Amino acid sequence: MNLMWVFVGCLLGTAVGVLPGLGSSMAVALLLPITFTLDPIAAFIMFAGIYYGGLFGDSTTAILMNTPGNSTAIASTFEGHRMAKRGRAPQALATAAIGAFVGGILATILVVFFAPVLADLATVFGPAEYFALAIVAFVATAAVVADSAVKGLAALAIGLSLAMVGVDSISGASRYTFGVPSLLDGIDIVVITVGLLAVGEVLHVASRIHKDATVTAMTISGRPYLDRREFREALPAWLRGSAFGLPFGAIPAGGAEIPTFLAFGLERRLDRRRKHPQFGRGAIRGLAAPESAANATAGSAMGSLLALGLPTSATAAIMLAAFQQYGMQPGPLLFTRNADLVWALLASLFVGMVVLLIINLPFAPIWAKLLLIPKPYLYAGITVFAVLGVYAASSSLVDLILLVLIGLIGFMLRRYGLPLAPVLIAVILGPLAETSLRRTLAVSEGDPGALLDSALALSLYGLLALGILVVAVNKVRNRAKVDI
Questions:
Q1: Where are the transmembrane segments (predicted)?
Q2: Which phi and psi (to 5°) does residue 188 adopt?
Q3: Domain ranges of the chain
Q4: Helical pair 228-248 and 89-122, crossing angle rounded to 10 deg
Q5: Kind and range of the H or E element at 167?
Q6: Cα diameter, the chain
Q7: DSSP code at position 125
Q8: Would you list the DSSP string of 447-465?
Q9: Which candidate among 35, 69, 107, 222 keeps its CA 20 to 30 Å from the CA of 96?
Q10: What would the pLDDT profile of 206-215 be if each residue is shown by its tens digit?
Q11: pTM of the model
Q12: CB-based burial of residue 387 (10 Å sphere; 0-12 exposed, 13-18 middle, 19+ buried)?
């Protein structure tokens, strides 16, 4: 049965991820209510398939339609879509599938061997250290995934506002409930994620349905696999891309955008030194590197989530919400209290990689046909599915009203170019940051210096300051180049 759930998860994750404008994080958010009827092991095994299946679906739309399903697949559009336009769409999809397999397998091997070590190290974390971790996650996410720090911080503030609704966990006082009893437990994370990602996207597409040019699917023909020459060409890029992605999964930077662009940039620089440069004409290395980087980041993000309880991307944040729905808190104690679930989940990651290859190599043309569904029918179906999923989870009309209101917030965020990842990270980590801060101040009798007492907390703040300095220097340099 568990093998079947891996297969179903991979199938559903890829099916949702392959739809334009959706993506892996929305795949997990939309399918979260479906798993509530399953036992925890089966649910998380299915989630593993959805997690990686959605990532491959992101790349499929990027290659075929030049429309990345998620920001992590933007780098794949540059050379992947050129390959498709030159009649090599099946080879491009095969490159993406094998790159996802290589990056995911390498990351999962490292997680299996080093997640327990991370869990042991996590036992040295106290309230001050967890507060420092949350601050690093907030600032890094806000600074990295937005084109301006102001937009990132604004999105962060919106997420923190949503997280503060409900009963204060320290004092027991109700906050921002407006006299509505249903809000005493706070706003359900499922409502927030489905509202922001699904309903917000539907409203955004509906607002532009007559403005955007109609996009037609690419014609797919030929062999959905690589020959020896193509494989030898792509292999070094897969390995280099994985090397970029592995460390970034443990950094709370909001996703895999940075390593995918770094990997793409390295391959482009290496290509310039070649006798016959391929970039700009559908270079297979330009697709292989970002694909393996994105999946390596996703795999190591799973290790960071399980061992530290720290979501380093929007998708990982939704996965953390799924753990909390079952009354479990990822972190060092998860490996002792729920060892059977953790190791079954890690094993399913290996199985899921193989299943994805089996599904996506021969059936890529079928995924492309999903893109032929007219947009009005496609997004109307998504809306119905989102409403039914939220109502089935809680049977609450208040949740449906909140779904619409949060969907409007998601629409406005897209309209004005504010990123969604900081909102989701703030909703998940906001309560942790607040509780850790107040506990630290309570123990120290209100002395804020207690937040800086430990070497670990100081190290985290130092890394944060260094990261802000690097980002600031790069922005100044870029502005100087533009002025010149």
A1: 27-52, 92-118, 130-146, 153-174, 186-206, 341-364, 376-409, 416-434, 454-473
A2: -60, 135
A3: 2-248+257-453
A4: 30
A5: strand 166-167
A6: 71
A7: -
A8: -GGGGG-SHHHHHHHHHHH
A9: 35
A10: 888 776 554 4
A11: 0.65
A12: middle
